[in-house]
Design brief:
Strand content: 5-15%
Strand order of the largest sheet: 3-2-4-5-1-6-7-8-9
Helix content: 40-55%
Number of domains: 2
CATH class of the largest domain: Alpha Beta
Order of helices and strands: HHHHHHHHHHEHEHHEHEHEHEEEE
Number of strands: 9
Largest sheet: 9 strands, mixed
Low-confidence stretches: 151-156, 444-451
Oligomer: single chain
Distance between the termini: 87 Å
Structural class: alpha/beta
Shape: globular
């Protein structure tokens, strides 16, 4: 009789790990190699030796393409050869390499196995916790509702090799000097030149778009998401008040001038059907993933984003809007603080940018003078935590929403930018039917040069 299989055994696949690492070693160029190495994290590899090999290759790839002789020499020089399993382990990695087209599927399997191990570890910790009668029952129940964390990543932190960081700094500075241009920074574009010149939203950072209802903050967030997706970034849009279909329709209105509102009273023309077809293909090609569940808690949001990230790494996520996140029994201020802190932590955990939409109070509508109507940071609802956590805050203001036919231009006001941009106001124009923000040139007489 066969012995029963241990239900708590950590699932692993060493052949897949070898095939993945071997394929990384024979990558055709350094960019592809870095891309392949970024498909998994250390906890996705079961073998300690394979984790060491993966880590060394990532550090070396900051300097250039890594091949087997170079990896062997680096391991020997840094006295890491024994930790990596010796020459026999390194020399056989290339024998297990698979075609580069299969690397993504190998990485997907490794991520799946890594997550399963994390779930098993989480279950064992819960069993130990539940059996300890000295622990309060409500603490046990809170632990049960929490998502299973990737414990090794959380315990070990996210350390960056000093040599790799220093080399990257030097390479960026030299490239900028030789090209006669500013040092490049990875950032997520808004798609509006005046704002792109001022704002520097990068990975692990949070931008807040604030405005009263119907001011156009969702439209601005979607423009930001679309421009970033068009640059090749993986974008997730979590809409807590608008169905996914309407977000796709707004994309068609913004970029292809599709008049969706008119179709309630008339049929689209043949030309408009052609525009809708192009917009639909464009939306599908951008690959923006939309979650439109109503009223999730911050824990549910975190689980959804982690799941999306495991399936395909998330570069940028949008939450529209944080006022609709369920706060449970917490007070408004405490709940908003927990939501803001949680989403900031999630942006850092996923190494992604975050765009959070927030409501403004009506306080700014009662002010007079040159700042009449212009939003301030203090106008954010329950603004303490949101204002503190955000790296960037953009206020949206349309004077005509308060005073019909007001000639003053719409304004996108940069209220905060701790990442290096300037604090300023961008005179703009909001096209309601298209849900589209554009810059406004105030040097033209018909654009209100007295503003």
């Amino acid at each position: 009789m066969n012995a029963p299989k241990n239900p708590h055994a950590a699932p692993r696949d060493l052949d897949t790990e070898r095939g993945y690492l071997g394929s990384c070693l024979i990558a055709e160029n350094v960019d592809r190699q870095r891309e392949m190495l970024d498909l998994v994290t250390a906890e996705d590899l079961w073998s300690e030796q394979h984790r060491e090999v993966w880590g060394l290759m990532r550090r070396m790839s900051a300097r250039g393409l890594v091949d087997l002789p170079g990896l062997f020499a680096e391991a020997l020089q840094s006295s890491m050869l024994d930790r990596l399993g010796g020459p026999e382990v390194l020399s056989t990695l290339g024998d297990h390499a698979v075609h580069s087209a299969l690397v993504e599927s190998y990485a997907t399997r490794l991520r799946d196995l890594g997550r399963r191990r994390a779930v098993i570890e989480h279950g064992l910790r819960l069993a130990t916790l539940a059996g300890d009668t000295a622990v309060e029952l409500d603490q046990v129940e809170r632990a049960i509702s929490a998502p299973p964390a990737d414990s090794r990543a959380a315990d070990e932190g996210r350390w960056h090799d000093p040599e790799a960081v220093a080399l990257a700094m030097m390479e960026d500075a030299i490239a900028a000097h030789e090209a006669g241009r500013p040092v490049r920074r990875e950032r997520f574009p808004v798609g509006i030149p005046a704002l792109d010149h001022r704002l520097h939203l990068g990975r692990g950072q949070v931008a807040v778009v604030a405005g009263r209802p119907s001011m156009g903050k969702s439209a601005l967030a979607q423009q930001w998401a679309t421009a970033s997706a068009r640059r090749g970034y993986s974008v997730v849009y979590i809409s807590l008040e608008m169905p996914a279909r309407l977000i796709a329709e707004r994309h068609a209105a913004q970029l292809y001038a599709v008049p969706w509102r008119e179709y309630a009273t008339r049929a689209p023309t043949a030309a408009e059907v052609g525009s809708i077809s192009m917009a639909a293909r464009d939306w599908a090609d951008l690959g923006i993933r939309v979650d439109d569940r109503p009223g999730p808690t911050i824990d549910q949001l975190a689980r959804a984003l982690r799941t999306a990230h495991r399936r395909r790494p998330v570069d940028l996520f949008v939450i529209d809007h944080i006022g609709l996140v369920s706060l449970g029994r917490a007070s408004r201020y405490e709940g908003t603080t927990a939501v803001s802190n949680g989403l900031l932590a999630l942006a850092k955990e996923l190494n992604a940018g975050a765009i959070l939409l927030s409501q403004l109070s009506r306080a700014h509508t009662g002010r007079a003078g040159s700042d009449a109507g212009i939003p301030r940071l203090s106008d954010l609802r329950d603004s303490g935590a949101v204002e503190q956590d955000a790296d960037i805050v953009v206020g949206v203001w349309r004077p005509s929403m308060d005073i019909p036919d007001d000639p003053a231009p719409d304004v996108l006001s940069v209220l905060k930018d701790r990442s290096g941009g300037s604090i300023s106001r961008v005179p703009s124009l909001f096209d309601g039917p298209r849900q589209l923000w554009t810059e406004r040139d105030l040097t033209r007489p018909d654009d209100g040069e007295d503003w």
